[in-house]
Amino acid sequence: xxxxxxxxxxxxxxxxxxxxxxxxxxxxxxxxxxxxxxxxxxxxxxxxxxxxxxxxxxxxxxxxxxxxxxxxxxxxxxxxxxxxxxxxxxxxxxxxxxxxxxxxxxxxxxxxxxxxxxxxxxxxxxxxxxxxxxxxxxxxxxxxxxxxxxxxxxxxxxxxxxxxxxxxxxxxxxxxxxxxxxxxxxxxxxxxxxxxxxxxxxxxxxxxxxxxxxxxxxxxxxxxxxxxxxxxxxxxxxxxxxxxxxxxxxxxxxxxxxxxxxxxxxxxxxxxxxxxxxxxxxxxxxxxxxxxxxxxxxxxxxxxxxxxxxxxxxxxxxxxxxxxxxxxxxxxxxx
Length: 335
Hints:
Helix content: 40-55%
Distance between the termini: 33 Å
Largest sheet: 6 strands, parallel
Number of strands: 12
């Protein structure tokens, strides 16, 4: 079996991707420091820890790198935490990829590399503009570092620019589980609906959009996960060369924040307690994807729609509450 190293494997996207990789015949080594989910294990910001993974698993043929902090708003408040964690971990990983001649590298990038685009939907050819947040800046710098390494090392890479991952696995076994206050819209919606949060705030209704709220491209987590498996296949089937490919991963549909709220209320029958607040630093007005390249070269087409996203996210939130009640009744603490 082909062995793949997945960094950040305990995270939201990483865990769903591991499931997809295993279902498609890959052997997976998962690494996570659990800095936002529990006990610390391996820290990619420690080079010796990172090097040991490759030394102990010399048959690793590919890396999918998720391990990074990802909250736009938090990065504005704590920029150095983001620069240190996201960049040092990637530097250590690329040093090992170069030393051990690992041939395939897939990077978890973001549509934030486009900054505030002049035209939408954005294609991979859209020029990069100054990032609106330190988080976005780390993705821009990360992409540059990977391009530079592929020029001098026998590694092919794919930079996957996500739009807005959301939803949960249809089995209801894994989903998004923010340890602190959620930063992404969908868990904010579900936590408000279930009562973990008494109220949610929509950040601004004075944007020049159809209802005044920001426009985003929501992609179901399982569709996103499968794109990583397809990206590995793409890299393996092309002749080895000093190349770096870029792909947008989004549905191509621009959805406003209020439309997302309305979709949730329609699917679940739950009315949300929300109000309109001021704009949030780091947010851009609108962005959604042109996904033609991923369709043509990866053979990737999303299978889930916005209602599927909201339905699976709500089922997952309900399961979390049920689990908490079950264990609380037995005096067992969930980590």
